[in-house]
Amino acid sequence: MFWKERDTKIFLTELLCVAMLGMTAALLLTRLQESRMQSLLFEHDAAIVSSLLEQGVSRQTASGAVACALGTWKQTEGQDRPGLTEEALEEGENLIRRIGIARDTDIRLIPVLHEFCAVGRVVVSLSGALFLLSLFFCVFRYLQRRDRIYREAVAAIEKSVEDDFLPGLPELYDGTLYQLFSRVNFMAALLKTKQETENKVKNFLKTTVSDISHQLKTPLAALSMYQEIMLSEPDRKDVVVRFAGKSETAVRRMEGLIQTLLKITRLDAGSVAFSGKICDAKELAVQALEEFTDRAEKEKKELLLSGESEAKVYCDPEWSREALANLVKNALDHTGEGDRIRISWEQMPLMTRFVVEDNGEGIAEEDIHHIFKRFYKSGDARSGQGTGLGLSLAKAIVDGQGGTISAQSEKGGGAVFTLSFPAERGGVQNGDKLTKL
User: Fold this and answer.
1) How many CB atoms lie within 10 A of CB 407?
2) pLDDT per position in the chain (437 positions), as tens?
């Protein structure tokens, strides 16, 4: 609430102090008025007694008259009742009227009362003016403090816009104003985060377009060269057939690159809805290896499967198979003749883990922390045909399903990639079996 604000508390405290000072001043003025009135009555009565004495009235009679008028008369022996009778009061009022004094007589014609009232008006006017000045001073100081806070807030916001940093408005105190500052800080943080995200997206798109153009430049140049060769020697069937095959290979490479980029773009945009369900782990691994059996046989490499025959895994089968296939392809790209690639799996209480390992060339220590970056390829990779997108796509797929992926390797010692997915609780645990494809 607004009364919890520090400046409002100060303002209300100052107003309370001014009110208390005003009440104290009013009490003092009342006391001074009483003293002045008492003094005037004394002088008035003294003048009346003096006049009566000059007219030959006895002292006892004059003092009794004053006592009756003031209400301080005391009953003595022989008197029936105190004070003045109604007839005596009426006679006194008629006598006063004869000398020109009545209840509605202009006060200016009575010097004593006029002087007393004039002094009272001056005192009340000065007191009221002092109170209004004090109140104005308190309000002015309150508004001045508020204006200073607003100016500092405006300056902080303008500076943050110019220098691109959070305004840092004060929000350590209670009150509506500081709640507003807190929301402004929160909104500025959101805008800054959004801006940073947009900058990252722009930089990513810029880098991606550059990398794509670089990746497509090589197969396009090769296609152009193959076309020139086939056009220059149309009569040589063997040359045309050989370079037509190379052209087909280049086209497939471009197609694979474009398909992979489209998949990564869909994952980045959040347009992929993973449909998690319980799948057979062995079947998933077999399907991931199927498309590489011919290549492995041609390159004289061995593909192995091992794991629990009835192990289950909770995942999106199509995308998870894509992730495993990319790891197998990466292993084939970095192994030589006679090497082996194995997919193994293990079901545990909270997850099912897949391991893709090979005994190929391994990954250098300086490359191990960068292999999941897009378009990243080690400088001494065995195959120059890779795009550097397979591992990045595999990580995006696994991360999108709440899983984890990691790599362990050392130069010349092969590589081990581990994927973990949530598993069905209560899965059947069987002995490991080794299958050779």
Assistant:
1) 19
2) 455 566 667 777 877 887 788 788 777 877 777 777 777 777 777 777 787 777 777 777 767 776 766 665 554 444 444 455 677 667 677 776 666 666 666 666 667 666 777 777 777 777 777 877 887 777 777 777 777 777 877 877 777 777 666 777 776 666 677 777 777 778 878 888 888 888 887 887 777 677 677 767 777 888 888 888 888 888 888 888 888 888 887 787 777 777 777 777 777 767 678 888 888 999 999 998 888 888 899 999 999 999 888 888 898 888 999 899 989 998 998 888 889 999 999 988 888 999 999 988 888 888 888 888 877 776 555 445 556 778 888 898 898 888 999 999 888 888 999 999 876 544 333 334 444 44
Calculate the dihedral angle through the C-alpha atoms of 42, 44, 46, 48, rounding to the nearest 10 degrees: -150
Residue 375 is given by DSSP the state T
The torsion angles phi and psi of 286, rounded to 5 degrees, stand at -60, -45
Q: 295: which 2 tokens?
A: 């290549």
**Length of the chain as a residue count:** 437
Residue 232, Cβ density class (10 Å: 0-12 exposed, 13-18 middle, ≥19 buried)? exposed
Tokens 């990691």 sit on residue: 406
For 100-159, give the DSSP string.
T--TT--GGGSHHHHHHHHHHHHHHHHHHHHHHHHHHHHHHHHHHHHHHHHHHHHHHHHH
Q: How remote is the C-alpha of 399 from its chain's centroid?
A: 27
Residues 6+ apart with CB under 8 A from 216: 254, 257
66 to 50, 82, 98: CA distances (angstroms) = 11, 13, 20
pTM of the full structure:
0.51
Q: 302-308 and 432-436 as β-strands: parallel, antiparallel, unpaired?
A: antiparallel
- CA dist 366 and 410 (Å) reads 10
| 275-279-283 Cα angle (round to 5) | 125
Helix runs in 164-236, H state only: 176-232
Which residue from 307, 303, 264 is spatially nearest to 397, judged by alpha carbons?
Answer: 264
Q: How many helices (H) and strands (E) does the chain have?
A: 10, 8
Look at residues 310, 311, 293 and name the one whose alpha carbon lies nearest to residue 302. 293
For residues 303 and 289, the answer to whether their CB atoms sit within 8 Å is yes
Which residue, 199, 260, 247, is CA-closest to 221? 247
Distances 402 to 71, 316, 365, 397, 398 between C-alpha atoms, Å? 101, 11, 27, 9, 7
How far CA 423 is from CA of 18, 348, 362, in Å, comes to: 74, 7, 30
